[in-house]
Amino acid sequence: GCEAAAAASRLGARTALVTQNRAKIGEMSCNPAIGGLGKGQLVREIDALDGLMGRVADAAGIQFRVLNRSKGPAVRGPRAQADRKLYRAAMQAALDATANLAIVEASVEDLLMEGDSVRGVVTAEGEIRAASVVVATGTFLGGVIHIGDERTPAGRMGDAPSNGLSRRLRAAGFAVARLKTGTPPRLDGRTIRWEALEVQWGDPTPEPFSYLTTAIANRQIACGVTRTTPAAHRIILDDLHRSPMRTGAISGPGPRYCPSIEDKVTRFADRDAHQIFLEPEGLDDDTVYPNGVSTSLPLATQQAFINAIPGLEETRILRPGYAIEYDYVDPRELSATLETKRFRGLFFAGQ
């Protein structure tokens, strides 16, 4: 959404970025990182098109690593851990400095249509008329959070879903289906035994994403590395029947590149350990993101298996992990420009 609004503005179009909460622009809902294998190349391509993400990641990065460095340039993947607060501030500043761009705080509940063309959007505050509308809803379209047998309508933890827009798209005849993704519990870094963990630093000389960045200014930090254990696997397997993926509460498929810990211990049952990277979410934030243990098991189960992992025996969960299921529009509804085939001027991005 941020990139679409900025790109339209750069091309001279008077643009409004409509968002539920202006303060959460650039929120980094899940992993506080940018890039990686495959994804890092995309960030560089966005930068080459004068996009924002590369420069913002450079302004917020607190650990930079080029993955696959020993291999050829085509498969190297630049990656940066970001300070979530710095990333949010840098993205908001970049948008505020963009000419032709206005930020409107509202929830879009409907589309203005005339025949086979879009003419704007409807919010609780009124209509916003436009020749083109780009829908970039992420996990918010009809979103539902699952933690064990608990279900909460939400676009992400603490934010309302976009249900009115979801109903409108279904009523308009679009092929709408469900996807799911997940996120791990957030941990209290003050309760982690860091001295018992393997330490992983970034590259000695940080390599920026953007060709416009001359130097990385932030202090760089290390992350901790640990692994799951057979005892942790047993706790997960014993409560697997309480996972919403197993009970049928979730119907949408998840991403292949980011399996939950429930999937890992069942699909790779021959392995007695899975690696976990403990990534601090900021320079002055005690919250830690345990990369590798995405889960939607009940909170008590999450706390039990976390405490069965070396270095995390006394670790406290600050926020439970969860799965989120949400609507998406079948990409076959779109042309190569991402404009819908059903309605002129309506585009989908960021699904």
Task: Write a concise synopsis of the structure shown.
By secondary structure, the chain is of the alpha+beta class.
Structural class: alpha+beta
What is the CATH class of the largest domain?
Answer: Alpha Beta
Q: Reading side by side through the largest sheet, how are the strands ordered? A: 14-15-16-17-13-18
For the residues shown, what is the average pLDDT? 95
Largest sheet: 6 strands, antiparallel
The ordered string of helix (H) and strand (E) elements is HEEHHEEHEEEEEEEHEEEEHHHEEHEEE
Please, what is the CATH homologous superfamily of the largest domain? FAD/NAD(P)-binding domain
Distance between the termini: 10 Å
- In what range is the share of β-strand residues? 25-35%
CATH topology of the largest domain: FAD/NAD(P)-binding domain
Number of domain modules: 2
Alpha plus pi helix count: 9
Uncertain spans: none
